[in-house]
Amino acid sequence: MSRDEIKWTLGLAVMLVLITSLPYFLGFANSDSAWEFSGFVFGVNDGNSYIAKMLSGAYGAWLFKTPYSSLDQRGVIAFLPYLLLGKLASGDALHLQLLSIFHLFRMLTIPLLVLATYQFVSLFIENSFWRRWATLLITCGGGLGWLLVLTGNASWQGDLPLEFYSPESFGFLAIYGLPHLVLARALLLFGLVNYLRASESAPRGWIAGVCFLALTLVQPLSVVTGFVVIGVHQLFLLIIFIHRRSMETWKAWFYAAVRSGVLAMPLVIYLGISFTQDPFLKKWTEQNRILSPHPGHYLLAYGMLLIPMITGIRNRLRIERASTLLPFSWIVALPFLAYAPHNLQRRLPEGIWVAIVLFAAFGFSQWKFDRKATKRWFIAVVTICGLLSSLILILGGIRLVLAPEVPVFRSAEEVEAFDMLAQIIEPGSVVLTSFETGNALPAYAPVRVVIGHGPESADLNLLEPQVESLYQGAVDEARMEEFLAAWNVDYVWFGPLEQALGAWNPGSNPAFELVLENGAYAAYRYLPDASVP
Description:
The protein is mainly alpha-helical.
């Protein structure tokens, strides 16, 4: 990379940091005596879970155990970045510290991703204009989902356009608020860059291996994508080199793949065994369903670049095959990854947008126009169309933070009650709450809840109606005691959300001791040996 290219890359990264940080700055600025900003403008439930993981790290955890279930857990090597980042916080205002660290993490990973993207693109594109265009669209762009938004039919075939909820399908959504996925994409691209260079330099293979090992610690599913892409690439190379009778060349590529994967493989195997054999992780896996949408959504997402992509594939494969076959392998693998018989199938086409834009840049660069000005205007229109969905996301975030309401904001009185509970409760205690309260509480206090997060709350479909029945007062004394004992409940939370569920009031039962009261919020310690007179 030349000095100008480095400057441009850093400039794009700084621009992305500033633009994506604006809604968050406004959110914190708009907090007042009545409302406190959650720190997130989309995916608030997942955002709270990331802060809860960081809080677990702050309280000494090295293995991941979700606070969104009261079941016993062995712990697993997962979400390591958040556990480690949590160890940087201590003392007062812990929640604010964790939010600040989270967003600092987000800001620092953005330049890493822009650099990784530019390096990957540069392996295939020599012209600096098209390198920059591809990097811009890969990191900032989206598809034509904004057309559905403008027509007022944002949900089509039961799903939103991919760019508005699927960070793996594009890239901007991760940059906007999912830093572990930003880091994962960067590590994936760095790993692939070094794999492609490893056939001529063995140390590059080991560097790729380190990248994939780190990727497994950050986002294990992304390393599966990387290995699938490399596997398809190896298959294409084997076919070509058998035809050419040049097996020695293929062996160099094969050894490059082995070096790239061998370091991460033990951890991949460990995680595979853990999530299929551990009783709690099996339950989590079974109910963590992230399925791909109707194929029409992928066509809407990527259709704008379909023709130039096909042109680019055809022309580029004529010129050079070995390395170019890797992004081609990525595209070939898309339907198999997106609709694999797996409950996390939508996660698997991670980074496919990189390969699509790469080949589209090849195609556009070779299109002929009568006038250069016409081509410039055409590319400008395509670029603007690709950026509109990201602009809608930013404007939507700004709109949300300018009008405080749950869940983007939480009542200041509730947050104060959470902080009070954190001071008096034993870390790891189980608190019974409504689902909505249970999602936020572990981000503020080192507690476990019975329900509070879709994938991580084991047996959620069974438990949520039971919790609601309890708060509704529809459960007799014996069944209530059985439920609380079965789910290891130590405390019961009683705030407006719980009161809205029904008539039950734990304060009227001597088995519950009031330990906290703050306006409309109260918490009770459950005393299983006490009984109603």
